[in-house]
Amino acid sequence: MKFSAKYLPILIFSTFALGIVLGGLLNFPNTADYLVKNNSKSKLNKLIDFIDNEYVDDVNTDSIVNLTVDNILAKLDPHSVYIPPSEQLEVAESMKGNFVGIGVNFYMYKDSVAVIKPVADGPSAKAGIQSGDRILYADKTKLFGRKLPTDSLYAKLKGSVGSDIELTIYRKSERKKLKVRIKRDVIPIKSVDVALLLNKTTGYIKINRFAETTYSEFMIGLGKLKAQGAKTLVIDVRDNGGGYMEEAIAIADELLLNQQLIVFTKSKNGTIDKTFATAKGNFEKGNVFILINENSASASEILAGAIQDNDRGTIVGRRSFGKGLVQREMNFADGSAVRLTIARYYTPTGRSIQKPYSKGNEAYFKESEARFENGELFEKDSIKVSDTIKFRTKKGKLVYGGGGIVPDVFVPLEVEHGNESTAYLLQSGIVGNFVFEQLDKNRGAFKGLSFDQFQTQMKGTNVYFNAFQKFIFGNGLDLNFGKSKSLVKRYLTAEFARQLYGESYYYEIVLTEDAMVKRILKQK
Question: CA nearest 192: which of 247, 125, 111, 138?
């Protein structure tokens, strides 16, 4: 039975909501964590001990404790969450901005670990690992034919800096096995995907999250763009769930004048902590545009709110998620953690952009789905704002609180060449999987092509478009691309470019017809 495509956007909204809960939409100070030691015998501890020692059947008391913590936090707000040890390690690495490993992007294709692309200048690239290689063994551990979960594969490939690992590789293009010894090293996890020029004077920076290294990555990108002649800056935080608020504040500081308010927080006892811009701004003049959508949250909203409320730039896109709560993290000895909401944050005009959560977590996260269903993603007039929560900037611009950042310039979901389900699908991981499989069948078809030759070849063929349509039907999605051909071909070409040439080439292709980017360039 085929899955109806009309439910695809709702499924994707649900995926983003899960990311909010598990740490993609954090907004906590980047400070030393607590280490919680429970020595006192509270009522809860006594109960657990009683069960452990006296209960008639064997019980995993750890699971009871986890369930208890989850239930307690569920009574609070949607962003106060418990994170078990396995998930906490992954989130911590992502927010740190690097990990120690061999440096490959891989894909579990059928029953094998297939290399999509080695990280540039990483250990695997230096050792000669190539796109399309299959990793059969990590030292003596068999990896193929076992359908190992991704976290188990990561565990086999990670290690300490400078440690060796011997990989047994099958190189399909040469039909032979190879043994490659690799010395593990620190691998960066980029939070700034790309910094490039949209035209001779307009720079573009894409930020996917706010991690420990985001500000430094941003400054490197900004420096490059200024050197290339950028006078206008477009910062893209679409689908950016947030992260460390200090990183967003530091970026806002580079754009705002000395002593302009960036954000302030208010705790339970009424303590207010204000953060102002300093005199060090590196881009205090020139036009600024911030791109947001329904999945921009937390630290992304701090940046957008600071720019909007200070009349510094233009917010373009669709209403942001609406997370205005600050969390503090407490680590436990077993590697788990609790993130507890300790304050609310407010934009410079004094507005809270936190959307209501009094109806419970399920209703809170389904609010994103409701935006799709009520037409808000397609018509600005469908955005529901409260007239009782309105503020004005110093220049008199009307802004609203109570549920996300409402953009100055509304741009609907990109559906001009098709429907919304197609638009969401093309930005999902399924396109990358399809492209890898196509390259794996005939990587030689692109060998030796320059980027311009590649683009010409892709424009002149419908082979991959037709194959992708068949691929989608084969995966149970009843989604016909007949009216979306140009949109589908653009994203397919972009993904081929990413896997063949690198990340920046993906954006170079996608942004040429991006609705929000086109709107900015047109109004300039």
Answer: 247
Of 69, 95, 65, whose CA–CA distance to 82 is shortest? 69
- Cα dihedral: 376, 27, 268, 389 (round 10): -20
Counting Cα atoms < 13 Å in the Cβ hemisphere of 234 gives 26
Q: What is the pLDDT of residue 32?
A: 43
CATH class of the structural domain 99-188? mainly beta
Q: What is the CATH number of domain 192-325+343-410?
A: 3.90.226.10
Cβ(521)–Cβ(512) below 8 Å: no
User: What angle, 0 to 180 degrees and rounded to 10, lies between the N-to-C axes of helices 245-255 and 214-227?
Assistant: 30
Of 322, 400, 390, 393, nearest in space to 17 by CA: 322
Q: Identify the CA nearest to 247 among candidates 222, 214, 283, 281.
A: 214
Within 8 A by CB and 6+ apart from 522, the residues are: none
Specify the DSSP element, H or E, that contains 25: none
The rounded average pLDDT for each run of 10 residues, N- to C-terminus, in the chain (524 residues) is 48 48 48 46 73 78 79 88 84 82 88 89 92 92 82 81 93 90 92 96 97 97 98 97 95 98 94 95 96 95 98 96 91 87 95 89 81 78 71 92 91 66 83 93 90 95 96 89 90 96 94 94 78
In this structure, the chain runs to a length of 524
DSSP string of 259-288? T-EEEEEEETT--EEEEE--TT-S--SS-E
pLDDT for 18 equals 44
Exposure string for 362-384, b = 16+ CB within 10 A, e = fewer: eebbbbbbebbeeebbeeeeebe
- CATH 3.90.226.10 in the chain is located at 192-325+343-410
CATH 2.30.42.10 domain range(s) in the chain = 99-188
State the DSSP H helix or E strand holding residue 339, giving kind and residue range, or none if neither: strand 337-346
Q: What is the pTM of this model?
A: 0.86
DSSP state for residue 210 in the 8-state scheme: B
Percent above pLDDT 90 for the chain: 54
End-to-end CA distance of the chain: 49
Distance CA 373, CA 294 (A): 13
Q: Is the dihedral of CA 122, 127, 133, 137 positive or negative?
A: negative
Q: What is the pLDDT of residue 51?
A: 77
Which one, of 417, 427, 414, 426, lies nearest residue 193 by Cα? 427
According to DSSP, residue 249 is labeled: H
CA distance linking residue 275 with residue 506, whole number of Å = 36
**CA quadruple 216, 217, 223, 229: dihedral, nearest 10:** -150
Cα separation of 186 and 121, whole Å? 11
Tokens standing for 205?
């920076």
What's the CA gap between 16 and 20, in Å, rounded?
Answer: 6
Q: How far is CA 151 from the centre of its chain?
A: 19
For 31, the token pair is: 């400070």
**Cα atoms in the Cβ-side hemisphere of radius 13 Å centred on 469:** 13
Given a contact cutoff of 8 angstroms between Cβ atoms, the answer to whether 459 and 497 are in contact is no
